[in-house]
Amino acid sequence: MNKFDLYQDITNRIIEAIENGTIPWRKPWNINNGVCALPINAVSKRPYSGVNILLLWAAEIKNGYSQSQWLSFKNIAELGGTIKKGEKATKILFWRTWEKDKTDDTGAVVLDDQGQPEKESGCTVKYFNVFNVEQCENLPQKFYENSAMQIDENLAYDAIHRISKGMNVPVLAGKSDKAFYSPGRDCIIMPAMQAFDSIDHFNAVLLHELTHSTGAKHRLNRNQKGNFGSADYAFEELVAELGSAFTSASLGVKSFLENNASYIDNWLTILKQDKKAIVQASKLAREASNYMLEFDLLEGAAEIYEQCA
């Protein structure tokens, strides 16, 4: 499959999941206690990235897997395991970077001012097959042990404090009955904590707005100029939705299935118009999540939440 078809196929898989009522970045409450753990390679323990997270989450939800651990054919063979009869692989993307000497139209190597070959680089992408550990037999027992994250909403709340403090984004709770990021003031306005069903619900909404704040010019400098209803606005909302989902998975914040029909329609419109949109949005969302999580490593973050009557 060539690169053009690959992007379209990936997009079609995400569209199909959404149209069938499954939003890949939101898990039902009965799986892993509502927490969407980041999918990892079961051997290296390295998390997958970008759109691969969505593809693996979608497979976990569709097939009812409780594990978020995945293996390649090679991993399974080296562990002495086998694939259960009838099981099919989940296809994800594998990116390989390359560098070579730059050549002109005649095939001659182009030299720089010092007489050294100029270089050009790029990357190629192809499919890579992986299997959930629940699709495998005869693996060492440790690979079947439940990997679900233990939930502590108060610890997640503290981590989000550190992120907010590190990013220097004040969070003003109780100032409005709506949650939003104010670019002009570079702060987040939130309803009072009591307006939410739980601390986790507050955390999930706040992480969405914090993801928006990562796009400020002095941070990651994303395009946030779109007006409500525009394609740019909808794309930024998709980035914030994915970024908060990735960060929630890292911090153990539960998913909340508030499926706003207008947002879902906007996401579908974007995906149907641009086959690369989901890959690009996932990449930007992962960058935003990584940016936020670095601030969780800071210690001694002071209280910045302003609880208002």
UniProtKB/TrEMBL annotation:
Residues 5-131 form the N-terminal domain. Its EC number is 2.7.7.-. Pfam families: ArdcN, MPTase-PolyVal. Keywords: Nucleotidyltransferase, Transferase. Signal peptide: none annotated. Coiled coil: none annotated. InterPro entries: Antirestriction_ArdC, ArdC_N, MPTase-PolyVal. It is an enzyme of class 2 (transferase). GO terms for molecular function: nucleotidyltransferase activity; single-stranded DNA binding. It comes from the Bacteria. Residues 166-283 form the Polyvalent protein metallopeptidase domain. This is DNA primase TraC. The gene is traC.
